[in-house]
């Protein structure tokens, strides 16, 4: 009643009330430089549409209700969705609605929208944005580093665009929430950077598709820590090296590692879990189920090793013969020393040299090297031989000893080792050589008539020709 008698007091009271109310209300509104709507209109739209106006994005304007903007879903901060149930509501005609700090972008989905611009770095600034589908467009440029700073992103699909550069390591900052990451069919290159934190397990990530790019380097081992992974596609890249055994520990339902440069052995995933198409188009060395058996590869490798051993042994003998011939041309002829004499004193002067064994009745000398101490001159002279091969530097025999053993004899061509001193020096060097890939020289025999024999262990292998051509045809 007092207010009715004094209207001025009523006005003063109302003014104080509204000032207090407005002050209290401003404390509940979070500070914001721009709303999600403003960010979308001013930053996102211009970059996505490029230089020409895009028909799909033409719906993004203030004359059309937000709920009718194509490819977008909105949500209030309390979790309720924005809908168009009552378009007659005054809020649709109020421009302040577009600056509402409590309204946020939830989803951006524009597949096959004829977009030709680039990925805006501001995508990472939406606080409640969960999914971004911009696949099957013509977006170019790089994937912005700022994308990894989105606080809510869990579903990303940039497949089938023209994106280039590297995959930014910051993408793994989303590991705590990320469920799906698909960037198939772009121009991305370089190695795939692993998460900065070594214990990042991306425990919710189920779908990882990096296929159809130009990624290189070794297999990204860190993906084997993604325990929830169901589908992995690394196909049509330039990865190399071995495929990680850690993949076996994942519960993969789909796998594509085809058309890379992977080599080695395919991890065993179990019978018929993944077909040939998951591994085809890699290095010919890649083997194991469901590809070719690795046992065939092993057999070829053994034959190749055997061929190398024989080649090295033959090469050593040829080299020795050439060296001896060269030394002969450097010496004066007619030294007066008999070709068939072996001087025991000279042999003992060499450290590690062979022991000389004399024969009965002037049958020649036998020089023994480590491993040949059990041979005698009678064994060598009485052995029955069978020709194995003939070459320009001598004939090889398979010789049977009286005690049942077998040795290999190489009868050097007549005229070899004319200079005794240089010949003995080379023979002694050959007798010292011991290597896992060479057959060791066990003894050397020089007869009174000038015959010279290199004596080796006999190995029941085929010839080098048989090994190389026979194994390659199997």
TrEMBL record:
Q: Transmembrane stretches, by residue range?
A: 304-326
**Which interval of the chain is the signal sequence?**
1-26
GO cellular component terms, semicolon-separated: membrane
Keyword Ubl conjugation recorded: no
Ranges annotated as biased composition (Acidic residues)? 337-351
Pfam families per UniProt = LRR_1
Per the record, membrane topology reads: Single-pass membrane protein
Disordered: annotated span: 332-361
**Where in the cell does this protein reside?**
Membrane
Q: Which UniProt keywords apply?
A: Leucine-rich repeat, Membrane, Phosphoprotein, Receptor, Repeat, Signal, Transmembrane, Transmembrane helix
Gly residues: compositionally biased ranges? 352-361
**InterPro entries documented for this protein:** Kinase-like_dom_sf (IPR011009), Leu-rich_rpt (IPR001611), LRR_dom_sf (IPR032675), PRK1-6/SRF4-like (IPR046959)
Its chief place of residence is membrane
PANTHER family attached here? KINASE-LIKE PROTEIN TMKL1-RELATED, LEUCINE-RICH REPEAT RECEPTOR-LIKE PROTEIN KINASE PXC1
**Family, per entry:** Belongs to the protein kinase superfamily.
Identification of the protein by name: Protein kinase domain-containing protein
């Amino acid at each position: 009643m007092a207010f009715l008698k004094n209207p001025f007091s009523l006005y003063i009271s109302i003014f104080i009330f509204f000032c207090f109310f407005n002050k209290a209300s401003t404390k509940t509104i979070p500070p914001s430089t721009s709303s999600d709507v403003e960010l979308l209109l001013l930053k996102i739209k211009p970059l996505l549409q490029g230089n020409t106006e895009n028909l799909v994005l033409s719906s993004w304007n203030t004359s059309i209700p937000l709920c009718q903007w194509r490819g977008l879903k909105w949500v209030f901060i309390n979790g309720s969705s924005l809908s168009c149930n009552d378009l007659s509501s005054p809020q649709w005609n109020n421009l302040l609605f577009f600056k509402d700090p409590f309204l946020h972008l939830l989803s951006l989905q524009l597949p096959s929208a004829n977009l030709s611009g680039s990925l805006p770095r501001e995508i990472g600034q939406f606080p409640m944005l969960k999914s971004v589908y911009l696949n099957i467009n013509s977006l170019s440029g790089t994937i912005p580093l700022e994308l990894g700073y989105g606080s809510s992103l869990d579903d990303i699909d940039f497949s089938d665009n023209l994106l280039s550069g590297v995959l930014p390591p910051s993408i793994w900052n989303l590991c705590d929430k990320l469920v799906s990451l698909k960037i198939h069919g772009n121009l991305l290159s370089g190695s795939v950077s692993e998460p900065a934190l070594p214990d990042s397990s991306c425990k919710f990530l189920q779908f990882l598709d990096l296929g159809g790019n130009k990624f290189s380097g070794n297999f990204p081992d860190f993906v084997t820590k993604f325990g929830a992974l169901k589908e992995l596609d690394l196909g049509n890249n330039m990865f190399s090296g071995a495929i990680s055994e850690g993949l076996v520990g994942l519960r993969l339902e789909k796998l594509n590692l085809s058309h890379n440069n992977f080599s080695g052995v395919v991890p065993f995933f179990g019978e018929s879990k993944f077909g040939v198409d998951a591994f085809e188009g890699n290095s010919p060395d890649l083997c194991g189920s469901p590809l070719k058996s690795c046992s065939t590869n092993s057999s070829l490798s053994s034959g190749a090793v055997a061929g190398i051993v024989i080649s090295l042994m033959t090469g050593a003998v040829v080299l020795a013969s050439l060296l001896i011939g060269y030394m002969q041309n450097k010496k004066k002829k007619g030294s007066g020393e008999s070709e068939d004499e072996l001087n025991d004193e000279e042999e003992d002067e060499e450290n590690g040299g062979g022991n000389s064994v004399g024969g009965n009745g002037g049958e020649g000398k036998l020089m023994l090297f480590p491993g040949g101490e059990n041979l005698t001159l009678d064994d060598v002279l009485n052995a029955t031989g069978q020709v194995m091969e003939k070459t320009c530097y001598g004939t090889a025999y398979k010789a049977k000893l009286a005690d049942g053993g077998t040795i290999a004899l190489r009868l050097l061509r007549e005229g070899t080792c004319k200079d005794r001193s240089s010949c003995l020096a080379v023979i002694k060097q050959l007798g010292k050589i011991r290597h896992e890939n060479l057959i060791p020289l066990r003894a050397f025999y020089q007869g009174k008539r000038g015959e010279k024999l290199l004596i080796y262990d006999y190995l029941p292998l085929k010839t080098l020709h048989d090994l190389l051509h026979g194994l390659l045809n199997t």
